[in-house]
UniProtKB/TrEMBL annotation:
It comes from Paeniroseomonas aquatica. Residues 1-256 form the UvrD-like helicase ATP-binding domain. This is DNA 3'-5' helicase II. The keyword ATP-binding applies. GO terms for molecular function: helicase activity; hydrolase activity. ATP binds at residues 22-29.
Length: 607
């Protein structure tokens, strides 16, 4: 049992709406759980629960972990704390009452990959996002909004983007629905409140009329400005609800005995001290892939050794990187390190779109369908992969290739319709050859072996796009989807003597996964984008960024940096906050790795 600070004790005894602020590791989550337990004991009627709302499933797992840590909270009290994401909570409301805001009664979720596919036609008509004028950006956004609404109202396919907005309209418009929600959840904890978007805030505003709100926030951990978080959000809350305010200040319980939190605070201003920071190390590396990754691997091995020496089984080491591309590169390098170093077991938090759509291609091949139109369906899935793999920011190359494949298929079918063989040099020849090889495999009924066999055929084939499918599909294992998928595929084999429903099963598995919240927190070595580390904690953290590319001494490219291009642009507030969040995830030690000849601008003292 922890000894609570006075400020934490005040949170427990004060009634009404509350705003709890405090720096990283100051004990906001902890006290809110104790508070929730107290409410469960003293205030809830049978059937009622306390809702703990988080942004991401990843954070939810950290909350579950924090609940487990509290031995003073009884099983029954824990049962009455419901931890959920905004998305999943909103979806429940929409499913029950969405018809009040123009949605059909039967609705399905349009998952991000499928949303990306649905919007790819609109997006492919515009230049790359960075090259658009403000007017073009607005025009593109308006078309996307209209299409999302059309899909929802006409086809019942609702994407995440619409959730908060529609729920806000619903709750503001219907006192009855509001009452229903508040009767079920008379108390709601809002985690990471500083990142609440405008639409989510509208929802909170409505619910706060009938439920008591406890908002947890660190104004300086606001890292989601780019999706609508607002520096003034805490003021909105204060004005609307007049909450009691509790400042847990810079108490740092996460990394007690270190200067990690102090270093985090100094990062915000760039005013560093001369004295070293206990628990924070800097490791420079040479600006080339060999030296960079060799240094990284050395750091990872040393950290792993230190953690194993602690004698605990659940140690965790996070490698935090600035970009998606870097997540992939680091994962590849740990899987096959340079020299004689054996592979380093790890998990990588990669974006889901590419792997999910790649998994669909493989699942379709596992079906070994003999239907006449099967090549059409196959090309269709490949095009979906190309259109959707980049999520909201598809590359021109992928979009163009999808168009190319479609028109090749049309020609191909044209030849077949005329009773002729398609020409040997057509775009689809190699694709078709790989397709035939993959569907000719003798399957065994062991889903993992069969899955790997199909993937291997794609990987070894001559169609470069299918090679990419295979590579992306490798992350399905990393996404920890394996187990559930495997069980369902096994069942299918037993039921049908083949994998006749593999595609539907795979799709279903991923939709379920979107709402699965009871994840164990990460342990072992994990790689993730710095943004994704929010709200988490690890024993050790390594922050690793990219390096400049030079030609004749001049920098010609500087990708994957914590600050874009490593260019000092003045305040750099968002980048500083983001960096601080990453640094303060560690309990014991944070190692910052940056190229020696072009050190991260945020590490240089402000003049
Ligand atoms: N009063 C306390 N005394 C000792 N340890 C504490 C105290 N309060 C919290 N802790 C511990 O400190 C760690 C960090 O606490 P917690 O996760 O609640 O912080 P937080 O403010 O929610 O952090 P962040 O905003 O960075 O996610 C946890 O391991 C928790 O058990």
């Amino acid at each position: 049992m922890v000894d609570l600070t006075q400020a934490q004790k005040d949170v427990l005894i004060t009634e009404g709406h509350q705003l709890v602020v405090g720096g990283p590791g100051s004990g906001k989550t902890t006290v809110s759980i104790l508070k929730a337990a107290k409410i469960a004991r003293e205030k809830l009627r049978p059937g009622q629960r306390i809702l703990f709302l988080s942004f991401a499933r990843a954070t939810v797992s950290r909350v579950f972990e924090a609940i487990d840590e509290q031995q003073s909270v009884t099983k029954e009290e824990k049962r009455r704390i419901e931890v959920d994401t905004y998305h999943s909570f909103f979806w429940r409301i929409l499913k029950a009452h969405g018809y009040l805001v123009g949605f059909p009664r039967r609705m399905t979720i349009l998952t991000p990959p499928n949303e990306a596919i649905a919007l790819s036609t609109i997006r492919s008509a515009f230049k790359a996002q960075s090259k658009l004028s403000d007017e073009e950006k607005a025009q593109k956004a308006a078309l996307e909004v209209a299409e999302r609404m059309r899909l929802a109202t006409e086809e019942g396919k609702v994407c995440f983007e619409l959730f908060a907005e529609r729920v806000a309209i619903l709750l503001h418009g219907s006192a009855k629905v509001r009452e229903l929600v508040s009767t079920m959840y008379p108390f709601i904890v809002l985690d990471e409140f500083q990142d609440t978007s405008a639409q989510q805030w509208r929802v909170v505003e409505a619910i706060g009329n009938s439920s008591t709100l406890i908002a947890l926030a660190d104004p300086e951990q606001r890292i989601f400005d780019f999706i609508g978080a607002d520096p003034k959000r805490l003021n909105h809350f204060k004005e609307a609800f007049k909450p009691s305010e509790h400042d847990l200040a810079n108490e740092n319980h996460r990394s007690k005995g270190t200067d990690i939190a102090i270093f985090g605070n100094h990062l915000l201003t760039g005013n560093f001290r001369d004295e070293p920071y206990q628990g924070v190390e800097f490791e420079g590396f040479g600006s080339n892939p060999n030296q960079a990754f060799t240094s990284l691997v050395a750091q990872v091995l040393q950290a792993r050794q230190r953690l194993i020496a602690l004698g605990r089984r659940d140690w965790s080491l996070a490698i935090l990187v600035p970009t998606k591309r870097m997540t992939r590169l680091v994962s590849d390098n740990l899987s096959a390190p340079f020299g004689k170093v054996p592979p380093i077991t790890h998990t990588a938090a990669v974006d889901m779109e590419g792997p999910i759509l790649a998994a669909e291609v493989i699942a379709f091949l596992l079906q070994q369908s003999i239907h006449r139109d099967r090549i059409d369906k196959f090309v269709d899935l490949l095009c979906s992969f190309l259109n959707g793999r980049g999520g909201a920011t598809p590359t021109k190359g992928n979009l163009a290739d999808a168009v190319r494949f479609r028109s090749a298929l049309e020609k191909w079918n044209g030849y077949l319709a005329r009773g002729k063989a398609p020409p040997g040099n057509g775009v689809l020849q190699t694709t078709f050859a790989v397709y035939q090889a993959a569907t000719a495999i003798t399957l065994t009924g062991q889903p993992d072996a069969d899955w790997t066999a199909v993937r291997a055929v794609l990987e070894a084939g001559a169609c470069t796009r299918l090679v990419e499918v295979a590579q992306e599909a490798r992350n399905v294992r990393l996404l920890e989807r394996g187990t559930q998928l495997r069980q369902s595929l096994s069942q299918d084999w037993r039921d049908t003597g083949g994998y006749k429903n593999a595609l539907a099963i795979t799709r279903q598995a991923f939709v379920k996964e979107h709402f699965a919240t009871a994840h164990k927190p990460e342990s072992g070595v994990v790689i993730m984008n710095m943004h994704k580390a929010k709200g988490k904690q690890f024993d050790e953290v390594i922050i690793f960024e990219g390096w400049p590319k030079r030609f004749k001494g001049e920098i010609v490219g500087n990708p994957d940096r914590i600050v874009g291009g490593n260019v000092n642009t003045g305040a750099m507030t968002q980048a500083r906050q983001n960096f601080r969040v990453s640094v303060t995830r560690a309990k014991i030690r944070t190692t910052v790795m940056s190229p020696t000849d072009d050190v991260c601008v945020l590490l240089l003292s402000a003049e």
